[in-house]
Design a protein that fits this description.
The protein has about 350 residues and is an all-alpha fold. The protein has one domain (about 25-345). The chain has helices at about 5-20, 20-45, 50-70, 75-105, 105-115, 120-150, 150-175, 185-220, 225-235, 240-255, 260-285, 295-330, 345. Helix 8 (about 185-220) runs antiparallel to helix 9 (about 225-235). It is globular. It starts with a helix and ends in a 6-residue tail after the last helix.
């Protein structure tokens, strides 16, 4: 009876602090995540016999090169295609409205009209609703894209924090985690390292591979705005269930152009999703997350409410870590971390 109100009060106080210093927390979280992924790559290269300094230099150089390459190629192309799509959608809507108006002369629609169903009113409402939704989707997409690539100062701050966390992040996180009671000051970092490593590495591999596969298939099938749709679906696949939503939205938009191209897009996207989700993803991720799909969806909504887009990206791995801790508490397994898996082998120094 006392644990829940105390836990709730602490949660409210913590959320107030986070909201007050939202930008600072966002910088630290993003920089920590980037440093974590880079550190994993560096440790992998070191384990293959490459010197640590050379591995750090190679990883940082390649990362900056990939960011610069994406900034001057893929992102401008996606922005250009998004602008062209926003111009084409009203024209497609007009053509669809004319096509639907011609269908009113068919036997089915005449019978519905005779039955007292106002076809014109249904068409008009459907047209207005679809126009508003597509306009809202376009505004949200443009907002996300500009917020992602527009903050030069934010990017520089995150890069500087990332370098600092790669060099001295161990002392930073050890100081914070030392406030936790034993054994949680070692168990929570261990769980976080395992979950975040498996989750984000597998998600990034799936997103990159599925984006390239979709791009090739979409170009081969003659689907318009192939780059925009392929990489939008790839980015959406970083979030569970988001890819299916983007697929339905893309199908709805292309349906205005023609049902044949819409069906090509829908079928090819679904086939690639099934291959990646049911064939590739289980081999990459295994059962590291261990969450029921219902809890995954709930955690995404909670993450979006607390921290927006960043909360959505981190919701699933954080929920998985919370589940592991709760399972330990319920089972009474509060012993120390096994000496056979030292913390420095589970996590890079930036999170250790």
């Amino acid at each position: 009876m006392l644990i829940f109100p105390i836990f709730f009060l602490n949660g409210v106080l913590l959320s107030l602090i986070i909201n007050r210093f939202r930008e600072l927390f966002d910088y630290i979280i993003i920089a920590t995540l980037v440093a974590f992924l880079l550190k994993l790559t560096i440790n992998f290269l070191v384990s293959r016999g490459i010197g640590k300094r050379l591995a750090i230099f190679a990883v940082i150089t390649i990362s900056f090169a990939l960011i610069a390459l994406g900034g001057i190629t893929i992102i401008p192309l996606m922005g250009n295609q998004l602008g062209n799509l926003a111009q084409d959608v009203p024209r497609w809507l007009g053509g669809s409205q004319e096509h639907l108006a011609n269908l009113k002369n068919s036997t089915l629609f005449v019978a519905l009209d005779n039955a007292g169903i106002n076809i014109d009113d249904l068409f008009q409402k459907a047209y207005l609703t679809l126009s508003k939704e597509l306009d809202r989707i376009g505004q949200i997409s443009l907002k996300v894209l500009t917020e992602t690539i527009g903050g030069v100062v934010d990017t520089l701050i995150i890069l500087v924090l990332t370098i600092f966390l790669m060099v001295g992040g161990d002392n930073f996180w050890q100081g914070i985690l030392s406030w936790l009671p034993s054994p949680w000051q070692t168990k929570i970092p261990q769980y976080a390292g395992e979950v975040f490593r498996e989750y984000f590495i597998s998600r990034l591999i799936l997103a990159a591979g599925s984006s390239l596969a979709r791009l090739i298939v979409f170009i081969a099938l003659g689907i318009p705005y192939s780059i925009l749709f392929a990489f939008s679906l790839g980015l959406a696949s970083l979030i569970p269930f988001a890819g299916a939503v983007v697929t339905l939205i893309g199908t709805l938009i292309l349906l205005l152009k023609g049902w044949v191209v819409a069906m090509k897009f829908f079928v090819s996207a679904i086939v690639i999703d099934q291959i990646t989700d049911n064939g590739v993803a289980p081999k990459l991720m295994g059962d590291k997350i261990g969450l029921n799909p219902v809890w995954i969806l709930i955690s995404i909504f909670i993450g979006a409410e607390i921290a927006g887009l960043l909360g959505v990206l981190l919701a699933v791995p954080i929920a998985s870590v919370v589940k592991k801790v709760v399972d330990d508490v319920r089972n009474g397994a509060t012993g120390e971390i096994s000496p056979r898996e030292p913390l420095t082998e589970v996590l890079p120094e930036s999170l250790a």
